[in-house]
Amino acid sequence: MAVYIVMGVSGSGKTTIGKLLAKELNLTFYDADDFHPPENVEKMKNGNPLQDEDRKGWLAVLAENIQKWNKSDGAVLACSALKEKYRKQLTSIPKENLRWIFLWADFKVILERLESRKGHYFKPEMLTSQFEILEEPNYGLRINVNTSEENILKRIMVNLNASEAEIGLIGLGVMGKSLALNLLSKNIEISVFNRHVSGKEEDVAKDFVQENADKYTFKGFDDLKEFVSSLKRPRKILLMVNAGAAVDAVVESLLPFLEKGDIITDGGNSHFKDTLRREQALKEQGIHFMGCGISGGEEGALKGPSIMPGGSSEAYKQVGLILEKIAAKDKNGNPCCTHIGPDGAGHFVKMLHNGIEYGEMQLIAEIYHFLRFHTNIDPEAIADLFEAWNEQMKSYLLEISVDILRKRESKGFLLDKILDAAKQKGTGGWSTNAALELGVPLDTITAAVLARNISGMKELRVEVSNLYNPINNQNGNLDEIKDELFRAYKTASLINHATGYDLLRVASSEFSWNLNLSEISRVWTNGCIIRSGLMEDLVNIFKDSNNHLLLNKNIIFEIKENQASLTKTVGVSLQAGYAVPVLSAAANYLLNFTSAQNAANMIQAQRDYFGAHTYERTDKPRGEFFHTQWKNNN
Ligand code: 6PG
What we know:
Blueprint: E1 3-7, H1 14-25, E2 28-31, H2 38-45, H3 52-71, E3 75-78, H4 84-90, E4 98-104, H5 107-115, H6 126-133, E5 141-144, H7 149-160, E6 167-170, H8 174-185, E7 190-193, H9 204-211, E8 219-221, H10 224-229, E9 236-239, H11 245-254, E10 263-266, H12 272-283, E11 288-295, H13 297-303, E12 306-310, H14 313-326, H15 345-374, H16 379-393, H17 396-406, E13 408-409, E14 412-413, H18 427-438, H19 443-456, H20 458-468, H21 478-510, H22 517-523, H23 533-544, H24 553-576, H25 581-593, H26 600-611
Parallel strand pairs: 1-3, 1-4, 2-3, 4-5, 6-7, 6-9, 7-8, 9-10, 10-11
Antiparallel strand pairs: 11-12, 13-14
Helix pairs in contact: 1-7, 8-13, 15-18, 15-19, 15-21, 16-17, 18-19, 19-25, 21-24, 21-25, 22-23, 24-25
């Protein structure tokens, strides 16, 4: 049987926790102090610390008893065992039968605990000497006691029982670590894993556990088999690794250790088609695969992200509760997490979230750029203006842009020192690809992706600008343009959302996902990057109808009010020499989409002319196709 030794300095709670543990494990509790000979007790009462000589006999008696308990039913022993040599003496039975539980906390915490104690013969002043002689064990459990007794016991039990963790997290990058801490802060028992790469990623999981040992108790692994066997069945594993080949590689290496019914949740920005493929392949082996969008960056992951899980309802039943616990909360206190739909739905929705994010970011960036150079005002003044706009917009992206604009470095603004070459990891472009495949116009998002592409051609742009000397009018008057600029911004933002949601609507029917656009908007009202006042409105708008946003009567009213300002702003900025790709894309989309008659009759005629592709006629029913011998002209 096992003997558990609860060790630590006086005041760490050995007796209390030892008793609770004994009760939990149904074992007898012993206090090592009760085995002291009377002369030792007397010494301590008089405030004289015990010497090693005094301890010898006492430790020998304890060692004998440990052997006895080990042979019978096992036991829990509370014993300070501060030095390694004392512990060695107590190790009178095989190591695997002896479980060391080291209770610890900072000196200050223990001192406070001791000072609040009554009727105990230990004098708080002796604590200093205890800390001096303490040699912390580098084996067994290390449990921080700066928490409630209930939590301490829970932590011990989680660690003693090797298959207790509720969920396992793989990948301790910035997002992985933040999510792990979020899970721990919600009292969810976790195990973490990070691969071992010599010289690059060594002991990442163990170090992470150690760094957080003062607050949480959990297990870290760099061995996949051990990691998997530390999880409750069915195993729930959250992958926080880079999208792409890494996900396949990790899934592949996990498979030998998984069983039917286990659930892998991919929390990265994976492509929805990869998720479809993975879900299908794993289903055949009885393993659930969830593609789960997580938005909110590092802070969101830590404090509450917006979570978009896709996969089977069965898998969501297992994992959903955990995800809902760590998600941000909407204004009614409900989690910003919902079962988005089957297979690739979660990652598709996250991809579109990012697409809209690209559009909103570019919109703010081009308005900033236009203001900064056309009206020649400094970032601080633009920040003031954006701040005022944000009273209405309540947009997270506008809010962070205000902070960015105000950020100074030495004498100047940091923004002025940042290279104008934007990076991208793919989700914006994937949105455009999906739109092209599904035949949906996605003007603003596409314009934003292309603007990042052009920005990346920095050297060439510098060279070309010297050849073309573009106009750069710096005589704009802020007061003259700012109101229309705001109206233009609001309208373009509306169109950016309208087109994004249109793609969601079409994808939902194409892939039979049955997406709930109102619920998706609700999940996007907090925690994510595109949270805004508009998002709150969309929750209600899509409650009534899933139609194209531009068919909503309030939106029609707003757009009619502002369309002229958008058009004018685009004209003014282009003429002044400032590119506004997303504003222009929005203006063009709006005109194109709201025109009953457009230029496509010419396209159809051209197609029929050179390729006999046929056309439909306005004077005949739809679905009847005609071809003309154009050259003969008769
Ligand atoms: C989020 C972000 C997040 C990430 C983007 C950045 O919702 O939390 O969108 O997913 O910051 O992937 O994408 P780019 O590197 O392509 O700008």
